[in-house]
Specification:
- The protein has 145 residues and is of the alpha/beta class.
- It is 30% helix and 19% strand.
- It is built from four helices and seven strands, in the order H-E-H-E-H-E-E-E-H-E-E.
- The strands form two sheets. The chain has a four-stranded mixed beta sheet. It has a three-stranded mixed beta sheet with strand order 4-6-5, covered by helices on one side.
- Strand 2, helix 3 and strand 3 form a beta-alpha-beta unit.
- The longest helix has 17 residues.
- The mean pLDDT is 80.
- InterPro entries: THDP-binding, Transketolase-like, Transketolase-like_Pyr-bd, Transketolase_BS.
- Its cofactor is thiamine diphosphate.
- It comes from Caerostris extrusa (Bark spider).
- Keywords: Thiamine pyrophosphate, Transferase.
- One of its GO terms (molecular function) is thiamine pyrophosphate binding.
Amino acid sequence: MDQLQMAAISQANIKCCGSHCGVFNRGEDGPSQMGLEDIALFRTIPGSTIFYPSDAVSTERAVELSANTKGICYIRTSRPETAIIYENTEKFEVGKAKVVKKSDEDRVLIIAAGIISTRSSESVGITSIRENLSEGSRSLYNQAD
């Protein structure tokens, strides 16, 4: 991380990608192979841009956006196979969240990122049935400084 901190001072154009991130990876490669503090570490780099895509479509867009964003970019990926929640034509912008699900009856808003975006909808779907709630879901696709 020291090298990236120093690179930020000189406004270097560096792209990084981390995989096996977060606790939902269940440590298929063992507990030492789960990146847990990666977002926190990259947030300390001045001017860095962090992408946390939730499916294959948003991952492809993260790579495109990262390649076209000046400075230090980090793409956080997960290992498990995930459901596709975006159409291939979906547009993404740096610094913007995406509304995944929305209705006029929404009484709960879930804000999630990455693999949690698909899993949170599953969880609230169960809760909605039990408590007769409607939920909106928003994916924090990208965090820009």
